[in-house]
Amino acid sequence: MDASFRSAMRCVAGWAPGAGLGGDNGPSLERWSMGATEPPRLAASDVIEGHALRAHRIPGDPEPGFAGFLDGTQQSRVVHYHDGVPLVHATVAAVIRFRNERRLYTWTGRPDIERALYVPRNAVPEALWDHLVGEFGAVVDTTPRDDAGLERVHPFIHLERAMHTVQERREALEEALAARWCERERRPILVDGGIYRSDVVARSPWAVGVVKSHRTLYAEGDALARVLQLRRGERSSVVRVSRASGYRAPVASWYLRLRDPAGRDPMWGLVRVEAADPTTLSESAEQLTARADQVSRWVLAEVAPLALPDARWDKMVYPIRDCEEYLRAVG
């Protein structure tokens, strides 16, 4: 079945002829939810390189080392409100772009794309649900398992549930794609975001995650000051981020400064790198330091050309912007 936004509009129009429907030019829910973020916090972590967290100047020049780059996107819009309950259409996508002779191509020849309607089944008439499933096909129930039916009346509650479910589907798509690369390839891949959600990816020697958001900082006290004082081309000592922080498998992680923060806020050009834990790789302390330095050189090599006009260009490497632009073009 055609699962596009226009098809969703036609399907809903078949149920409620003449009803006011969302338009193609309406803003995405991702823009509406930009202010809904987790509260900032500090989290403890164990230093596994040396005895205390400190700044390390990365030796050598930046050098390209990644063969693949993975990112995903999502776009959600309301098709119709049925008695205040939003029917949300969303497209989620993920792609790996791989480098060959300085050009980027799509791994496997195509991205992974899913389109669906997101509807709280318990808050709409059974006949409407049956109509959507029969005529549109791809319908995801956003009703939480523990729903007691007490919050159905507020449209924002339903929108937040839809957005949360859409985000979970995008993350699942990214995780599955990253796992396929790690199982089939023996070349390094840079993943936009953390690698902790999948055991296969978190334990792979080929996967590296680059985290741009710092709502949670894995440093406290003097260690936090050292992270924020990192200069361009410096990294922090490697720490272990574990299951205690919600990770399925422990990962090695360190902060890396991509750009000069002089005159900027302390997060300018700061990213957090994730890679397989050294115990997973049976790695010595010297090997861990060498790997952190090498991966840091690989990441630094990807900061040019600039990822403009993206507002996150200070933390974004250009091939990740290429992934996003590619998905916008084919989505």
Can you describe what's shown?
By secondary structure, the chain is of the alpha/beta class. The chain is built from 8 helices and 15 strands. Strands 2, 4, 5, 6, 7, 8, 9, 10, 13, 14 and 15 form an 11-stranded mixed β-sheet that branches. Strand 5 (85-100) and strand 6 (103-106) form a beta hairpin. The mean pLDDT is 90.
Give the topology, please.
Blueprint lengths: L4 H11 L13 H4 L8 E2 L3 E2 L7 E3 L10 E15 L2 E16 L2 E4 L5 E8 L6 H10 L3 E3 L13 H30 L4 E4 L6 H4 L4 E5 L4 E2 L4 H7 L5 E3 L2 E3 L9 E7 L12 E7 L8 H16 L17 H13 L1
Give descriptors for this structure.
single chain, 331 residues, alpha/beta, 11-stranded mixed β-sheet, 8 helices, 29% helix, 25% strand, elongated
Low-pLDDT parts are none
Strand content: 25-35%
Helices and strands, in N-to-C order?
HHEEEEEEEHEHEHEEHEEEEHH
Helix content: 25-40%
Number of helices: 8
* Total beta strand runs: 15
Principal-axis shape: elongated
What's the mean pLDDT score?
90
What is the radius of gyration computed over CA atoms, rounded to a whole number of angstroms? 22 Å
> Can you summarize the main beta sheet?
11 strands, mixed
Structural class label: alpha/beta
Cα distance spanning the termini: 16 Å
Would you summarize the structure shown here?
The chain is of the alpha/beta class. It is built from 8 helices and 15 strands.
